[in-house]
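Q: I'm writing a short explainer about Glycosyl transferase for a general audience and would like to include a description of its predicted shape. Could you first generate the structure from this sequence?
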Amino acid sequence: MLLGVVVCLNYWADVNNRVSSHLPTDHSWFEWLFAHGAYSVQHLENPLFTARQNAPDGVNMMANTSLLGVTLPLAPLTLLLGPQVVYALYLGGALAATAGTSYWMLSRHLVRSRAAAFVGGAFLGFAPGIVHHANGQPNFVSNFLLPLIVVRVFRLAEPGRWRRNGLVLGLLVAYQIFINEEMLLLTAMACLVIVVAYAAMRPRLAWARAGTFAAGLGTGGALALLLTAYPIWFQFNGPQSYRGLQGGVFHSWGEDVVAFVTFPRDTIAGTEAVEATIGMTEQNTWFGWPLVLLSVVALVLLVRRSLVARILAVLVVLFSVAALGPEIRFNGELTGIAGPWSYIPADLPLVEMMMPTRLTLVTTAALGVLLALAWDAVAGHRSPVPAPRAPEGAATDRRRPRWQHLVGYAAISLAVLPLLPTPLPAEPVDPPPAFITSGAWRPYVPDGRTLVPVPIPSNVHGLPTLRWSALTGHEFPIPAGYFIGPNLDGEGVFGAPNRPTSTLIYQTMDAGELPEISDENRRQAVEDLRFWRASVVVLGAHPREPVLRDLLTALLGAPQRVDDVWLWDVRDRV
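A: Of course. Here's the predicted structure. Afterward I'll give you a sentence or two in plain language.
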């Protein structure tokens, strides 16, 4: 919990007016999602779809990172405290909860030492890649169900309990689908590798337990499918669904080889300067050289006497190599050497939506378990708390000289301490205009019409105006926005396809000067406003406010000054 507070400390300095300086638009998107959950509960609307963004087409929330498993239960808190406060509360809480469930998994099923479980659990909750995703992507730190899912998978083979274990697994999987499907997929891939590795290393035991395991797995799968059949159908076939991403933009994001031994930015040993060399990646494997060295030594020492360590070695090697992507990258430069993903079709279902670098999140999990095993092995028979059951293949207790214990604890500590997280970088963001927060907009926006904020929200522009919608509880719909939706060919693209007027606004912002406006531009503006079902166009304080005001005046005529905004009432035109 303390680490969760530390990570979010810069947000709490001014929680209502600060966002991630690394991913400010993602931060605002997730604030918007918390508001969406509250709006759906308050108005009893289908949470799988919304027309409050990208009006009039709307957004398929199942086809986006909607975090419905969190935003809906927390709706009362969001209505009470606002999405900014709930975002910061949840971000730190999700990190701590993941560490907590990881500690439970390790202490109950893999190690005897509570200290070992604490070290491993802390790493699993606050690993470099996880903390880096906390910069605006709380769905990737919401991993508190994954240790429970892994435990339940490997309890499926318990004689006489396959039905209960299967039902619990099905419930957990169904819930995880509404938190983060990608992390669930990575967990499923890891479990598959573990099962295959176990079967190869213990073929007789695996065969003896195969029937019970299959029965439990079938029960869990059937229940999860039953509970999520409609939402999954809606994700791929509902309104505003799509097939893959245009150009397979994620397919080429492989991990840099040097990243494995690099200290991540958001830790006590990291600096921002390193991003200028390797590049601004997700830092999923920025473990630093001490942890990499310790992991290699620990695996060498443990694999001969620990089945769990041998399986961890398989996970580390397989997923680390697979994460290198279609072309090997070294210290920020492409080497021309083909990577493993060069042999995988970019349009393969599921694969086309995956980022190779994120496969190393499985490596991260394996290293967290390895840290716990290493500490447990160092502790030996002196561990104060016996495990409820002796883990199969776990290292055996042996008395060692005291200095060996001290060296072991010191080595693990020196590998982990440099990775302690620091407060995430945050930057101030302008609050919405008083015209928006006071409700002065209400007389101008009747039911069925939209408020068009300028800049029009997109994945590049309009971060403050997207927050207008979030911080007013979605009381008015807006056009465009920050999401993934279909283009004319049904492929997924970021944001709404630009219309002539939104393109003109973005070009004017980038150039900083007013272009020549033609009658055709004015005609297109009216057509676009009619498409958006606009009732009013609103321009608040903005670095480009003068040129944007001149542009909209040239397109729509003279504005009104209402409170602290410029306003164009277009109800009589569209």
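A: For your explainer, you could say: The first strand starts at residue 18 and ends at 20.
Q: Perfect, that's easy to follow.
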